[in-house]
Amino acid sequence: MKSQFQHWRANFLTGLAVVLPAVITLAVVTWLFGTVASFTDTLLFFLPRALTHTQGGVGQMHWYWSMAALGFAMLLLTLVGQATRYYIIRRVIGFVEVWMLRLPLLNKIYGTVKQVNEAISSSKKSAFQQVVLIEYPRQGLYSIAFVTSEDHPEVEARLGLDVVGVFVPTTPNPTSGFLLAVPRDQIIPLEMSVAEGMRYVITLGSVVPEYRLPTLVPPREIAAAS
Hints:
Elements: H1 2-40, H2 49-52, H3 63-83, H4 87-102, H5 106-121, E1 130-135, E2 142-149, H6 153-159, E3 163-169, E4 177-183, E5 188-189, H7 194-202, H8 219-225
Antiparallel strand pairs: 1-2, 1-5, 2-3, 3-4
């Protein structure tokens, strides 16, 4: 009985390891599509509900019409991006932004969302530049962190140190964490990519990126080369 249970347990865990990633991926995609569709479905307001919705117009929207609404939203965004090439449209957008930033409550929300969007969609550099190790949360313990910025004039002037901004994510949810200003000489750069570092954090350290130790050149070969 014990042997049969162990055999069943091994098969169950193997099947779970194979199926679970696909199930989670499909669940996330389904949730994301439903969330986006709740906004994009309203773009088809000009069509009769009896055509786009189930139960004669009183039920939910058909999935294929939701897909059409998503495609329509992408088309509208493309047209807006194309329109920003014209001077008049840029002036109108600038006027709307100024108006949004002057309203008492909306200015906080709009300003924050705009800054986050610019940080994410910026083509100059990614939000996370490099994976590093820092001594955190106390001396003798090290945490994976991501370099976010290297320009901190006021912080450096106050501290008299050359500091680097790093983000220490929580695991397994890396969307939250801690922003730290760490002296540059206390940062240990790692060779793993940002994607590998993020995967390492999400999987609780169970998926370790491959690393090949550098080949050490014998002293005699170094002397011969010099």
